Each structure stands twice: as structure tokens, then as C-alpha cells.
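FORM 7B: Structural annotation worksheet

SECTION A. Query
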Amino acid sequence: MHVWTSVGAPELPPAPLVGRSRDITRLTGLLTRHRLVTVTGTAGLGKSRLAATAMIRTAGGPAVTVRVQGSGPAAPGTLTAAVVQALALRGHIPGAQTASTGQSVSGCRRTPAPAASQAVTGRPAASRDLTTVLPASPLLLLLDDVDPAHAECTGLVQRLLMAAPALRVLVTSRRPLGLGDERVLRLAPLRTEPRDGAPAPAVRLFLDRARRAAPEFAPADGDLPVIGAICGHLEGNPLAIELAAAQVAHHPLRRLAALTARRQCWLSDAEAPLRRHRSLRAAVGADYVLCDRDLRMVWGRAGVFAGSFAESTAVFLCAGGGVTPDQVPSCLARLAVAGILTPVTDPGGVVPVRYRMTRAAREFGTERLREAGEYPVAAERRALHCRRVAAVAADLWHAGSQHQAVQLARDEHADVTAAVRHALTEPGQTETALETVLDLWFWWGVYDHAEEGGDHLLRLLPLCDPGGPLAVRALWLTAWLRAGTHPRQAGDLLARAWPAAVRAGDDATAGRIAHAQGVLALHRHDLRAAAAHFEDAARIIPPGAPGGPSASVALSALAIARAGFAPHAARRSAHQALTRPETRDDAWACAVARYARAFVDHRQGRTARAWRRAGRALADLDGQPPPLGAAALRRLLADLETGARDTPRAPVPRPGGTAPERPPNAVDMPRPAEEMPASYRHMM
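SECTION B. Predicted structure
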């Protein structure tokens, strides 16, 4: 452990701060109005640089800096001894010495002081010398990176402020001191998204440091999005961005983007002035060594989460091995205070708190988890959690609580993806992963994740029992998800699924196979074949059968297909779809049915009625997650308005808006009888 003291304001870092002008202004304002200010934030955000810059701007007189360096907790009294030494070097007690503790206390002066740049040894004289070196004149004291001596720093600062009214203290730490007069400035990562056509601060920092590391570095215009992706992978952490920028001499930008997307702790720079800044692993590890055993265990086990996670989920996954379930919430709160976890929701709000871990901390924790041999158990628990979440989401969807079902699927999306990927290398988890994907059919098919869901199923299918019921369900769902992009592959999958479903007597799956066949026929613009398949699906799918599109959705699709050649039958099918009891509790099926009625009116030349119905259906989605039906309704309204002649363009209602008060005076321009609009692809 090393404690460095400096008499005078610290020198500015050689590389300028980028993207911190607002933070500097806020910090200088706090320093001019308050006696104790603490800059907090996770490792690598630039707390020390920001404090040094603000200190130079606001010192306006004598200043003293004490910086703690090293790994692990500091010995008791070390920080106090360093403060005594720094104040002594300033001239209050010329030539004062501190005693040896086995620590190294070095001073480097900015104003003349005897022996200011020499290492001093001896026992730390804490309270004995502190009362005699307190300044009577104004002084600004910077205590930098005090995390290894956090508890000692809290007591020391409280005594200093009480005994020296002219003293102001600026502290940098990963967590606040918790004193009553303390003002806290929490540093956030740099913004990674461009705004108003200007590069994001994170991108500007990368460009500046890359040019310093490699003066010949000259990115092309097309490289800025790649740099933005790198900064996004690094979550706007300035230290990580600087370390990545130093790699431009060794890796092309696109290669660097691929590397940072997979792993980040490998980033390093041997020439960094501070040891803990020479690699991202060292920066994160400096936090890890300050944690007690329980925190380390919870950190490592929580590292298995790929996205945000709820407190209850962490209790399920992190408890064990000496950590009791009731200890996990407090450990999470302490990790959040230290900046390892970030609360996604307000811990004091009515919504259950969710946390997320930075990617670097997650990678570091996973490494520790693998070293301890606990990763397989943690991954299995994550898979079981995802399976349970998917089952609950499927039940919520089927029960009509579709908003909650979608929110649950959205919250756990990243971990479901991670669980599926892990199952590809762990045969024992294949069935669990497949059940998870199947239960989330609505997330893939209704909420625009068809390509991802289809890819998951195609990877899992070869690993499961080809004759089992899960495989049959997976075959039809894969075909339905890929019907629009890979029709030939979808047809082959349905050909394999049909005989197995018939042999098993699974009417729900057989009906959904017919539905998927109808979607394929629609994409071929074979409306009569599509109508025949949808009619079979509406007849075969049992009422209220979970796990896929209902018979009501098949009736709506039947109406859309018949609109081109049997308009009266189409109207009848649309009406039946809307009046079925199961439609009332299914927001997606209701949106599809209302779209079908509006579409049939449109094809029959009832433009004004179609416009009103589509507008009302879109407005009624207010407050609901926007399924693909909303996109189709907007497309239909746009089609209706495109056909207007010599009339103003009518406003298109959006989700959350209101329906139009009166229809546009538009003239329908019908399509050929056997041609279907692109909007139906967002419905079926």
C-alpha cells in the first residue's frame, strides 16, 4: 500500500478530459459553496482527473493532495499519517516526521518545503500530530482514491471539518462517506450515442486517445459507427475506452469491435501511470479485493446474469456456500453503493428493484466463478430461472395479461439468450432451453424477434429427441417464424411436423401447422390455398389452446385471404373472429381481427369505414406494448391515405393517440384481386 502526498494543487493530467465540461462546472460550483464534496463512481470513470481539474480551478490558495494507491485494505492509521505528513510539509510543523508502519509515505511538493519529496519512515502518528497541524487559514484538501481506507477516511474527515473551520475537503471514492454535510457528485459513463449530428463524447475520447497512441491514425467516415459500437460495448467507461484506443496500432477497428463485444478484461496499457489503470482487469480487481467474502461470492454468482435481474432472482441464484438467502439483498445493496451494480429501477419505488452489472465486472466475476468451479451450477440455476419465467409469461399471455407477459419476456430476454447458447454445449440443458423458447412463442412471433427465435430453435432441434412432442412443437414454430424469410426451409419443416402431430393426436399443433401453411401460401400470393389452410386451422385448433396463435387469429387470416376473391365470406370470417369469446382477452388476436375488418372494408371500396376502423383500433392500443399488429394498422392507414385524390393528407393516429374524428375524403385504389399488401406480413 502506498500513500502519496503533494503540497499544492495537483498537476493537470497530460491528456485532457473529454466530455466532462458539465461535470467540471457542477463540481466547481459545489466546491465554492460547500466544505465537503465527494466524487463517486465505479472504476475508470475519471474521478481523480475530474477532481484535479476542478481543484486547480477553485483552489484560490493553498492546497494539499493525499492519494492512496495499492491493493487491499490500508493499514489502520495510514491515511491519517499521510494527512499529517502533507500538512507538515506545508509548513505548519517544518520538518515533522511520521513513524514507520511498513507502508511507504512519499511526498512530492509543488511549493518549497523541506524534505517534501523524500519517503519518510516510522510509526504513523495519528491523533497526536493531527491537532497541531490543522490550518488556521483557508486550505483545500484533496483525498484521492480513499477506498482502501474508507472507514478511516470517514472519521478523519469528520474530525478535520469540526476542528478546522477554514478547511475544505474534496474526496474521490467509489462510494460516499455518509457524513451529514457531504455533497455527492456521482459520475456517469460517457454518452455513446450521437446527438444533433455531433459525435458522442465517448467517440471523441476514443479518437483523441487513438491519435495520441498512433499519430498516423486517421479513421474514414465509415469508421465512426464502428468506433461508436466499440464505445457501446465498453458502456462509455473512459478508462476502458482509453485502453481500447491504445490498441488501434495492433488491431483494425472492426477486429477491435469484435474483440470488445466478446471480452473486455484483456484491454491493457503497460505505460499507464497508475498500476490499477494498466488493465481493465486490474481496475475491476481493485474493487474485488476490497470486498469481504460474502460480497465476492454474490458478485461472482451474479456475474452469470447477462442482463438486468430482480432481487428475488439473485436470491435464488446467489444463495449457498455460506451465503444465506436473507443476506443476498444486503449484499446487492452494498455492491450497488460500490458501483459494481447499477439499479435499473428505483430501489425505493413500488416496482421491485432490478440490478444490472457492468460488462467488465460481470466478466471478472465470471472468471472468479469458473476458478471456484461454480459456473456449471450457476448456469444451471439460470436456465431453471429462465424456464420458470417463460412458463409464467406464457400463462400470463394466455390469461389475457399480455402487457405483463411481454414485460417479463423483455426483462429476461438477455438471460434467455445466454441460457440457450449455454445449452448448445451442455446436452443436459437442451430440453429446458427448448421448453423456454417454445413458451415464449409470442415474444418471437408477435414482437418482431422472429429471426432470433427461429435461429434458437434451429440450433436446439438437432440436439433433442426428434420424435418427442417438444420437437413437433419446435418444428411448426420454426416454420411459422421463418415463413416470410426462408419459405422453402419452412415448408420442409412443416412436412416433417405434420405426420408426427397427426400420430400424436395433437390437434393444437396440427391446427397451427395448417396456419403456418396458410402463411406460406399468402407469401406465394396463392390466396385460395391460403384460405383453405386457414379454414382448416380455425376448425382444428381447440378453443383456448395455449402455445400459439388461436383459432380467432386463423379466422382473421382467413378473412384477409378471402378478401381478394370472396368478399362476402371475408366479411363473415372477420366478424366471427372479432366476436369469438377468446378474442376479448387476447389483445393481439383482437388487433388482428380489427385489422381484418378494416382491410376487408378497404378491399370492398368502403374507404371511409376502413379508415375509421383502423384508426380506432390503433388508438385503442394506448398503453399496450406495440405488437406487430400496430405496424400493420399504420401501414393500412398509409395505404388508405395514399389513395386520396385532391384531398389533404389525414393524420395517422399512433399508439397513445386518439382516433380521427372524421374519415378522409379518399378514393380507394384497389389492388389486383390476387395481390396482397405487404402489411399482412405484420399480422399472421
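SECTION C. Observations
The chain has a mean pLDDT of 82. The radius of gyration is 32 Å.

SECTION D. Sign-off
Analyst initials: ____
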